[in-house]
Design a protein that fits this description.
Layout (H helix, E strand, L loop, with lengths): L7 H7 L4 E5 L2 H9 L5 E6 L8 H15 L3 E6 L3 H4 L14 H7 L3 H5 L12 E4 L1 H4 L4 H8 L4 H5 L2 H8 L6 H17 L3 E5 L3 H15 L4 E5 L24 H9 L6 H8 L4 H12 L4 H17 L1 H16 L8 E3 L7 H9 L5 H9 L3 E3 L2 E3 L11 E4 L3 E5 L1
Parallel strand pairs: 2-3, 2-5, 3-4, 5-6, 7-11
Antiparallel strand pairs: 1-6, 8-9, 8-10, 10-11
Amino acid sequence: MKQVNTDKKAIEELLTRGVEKIYPNKAALEKELLAGKRLRLYCGFDPSAKSLHIGNAILINKLAQFQKMGHEVIFLIGDFTGMIGDPTDKTSVRKKLTREEVSENSVEYKNQAQAFLDFKGDNAATVRYNSEWQDKLTFKDLIELSSNFTVGQMIIREMFQRRLKEEKPIYLHEFLYPLAQAYDSVAMEVDLEIGGNDQMFNMMCGRDLIKNLKNKEKFVLTTKLLADANGNKMGKTTGNALFLDQSANDMFGTVMSWPDEIIPIAFELCTQVELANIKKIKERLSDGENPKNLKIELALEIVTIFRGAELAKKAAEYFQTTISEKSAPTDIVEIALAQADSLFLAVVSFYGAKKSKNDLRRLFEQKAVYINGEQTDNLNFNLKIGDVVRVGKRDWFKII
């Protein structure tokens, strides 16, 4: 078992870097850490998609920081809660998933988490699935557990209040999601749960439940969100989501599409760059340096974590060629004319199952398609051998 690090300076950074709030308070958790107590902590990840994203990576990074300090880390895959669907921040009910769907979605989660966490060695992180205990609960157990919470506690949540005003339905199973997540803390008897600031309600339910059932204190640590000045998270809605299954080129390009204002917080949350160097990055911005330079450094750091230094360097070169200079890459993808005799069919062939036909039609409507450098919205444009097609800023292919 790895010895717990009780260095005061290291603990201070652990409890401040990327941290929004600590419950009940920072001083209480700091006291436990300084005393050398080895904490058992976790963060849960519901398999709602086939890949983790940068928001998940921020949480995994924080787990890894605790692991390096010698604490016991659990990487929890919510294969049970994932079937319910977390209602947090949702203005309409989530689609329920089957056990098969959540199992399929989570196949690569451990591999992706290995960019930060160590699953081997004398202090290996543990992967657990909450179906292990959630499947065993009876209806009687559910009634007993639900008696620890009131309808008022649940209905007061902002997204439920919004739905009531908009006369949208709130389903009973959505009330049960925080209860299911809360029971994870009880089943694993954890000392600490980590999550995004938007998960505070669910995590506090776990804090209340473990106190009621086990008379045990559970700390809650929320991390800052990767968001712009208006509070918009980097994600699908804003069109700049970074998924961990993306290619190095796509990762690099996605980071470069983030607004300049999030550069410092992105270094703090998404990388392992020392805080002293992040302070210098802030100073460089304040002194008027071109934010693009710093964003390139950020993209290199992030892509290196997930794809390695060599691919990160190639991705930077690809970005310079295809975006900054608007030239076709030397390793351009080739699409055979026999596969597609119109521009739209060629674009469909290029993306395969990655994008729906409706999404691709919208790209044409948004004037995001170019042939040999000329913008077009003509889906039926007749292609010829040698034509070079660019979709958006980063995707290129050539007709052969």
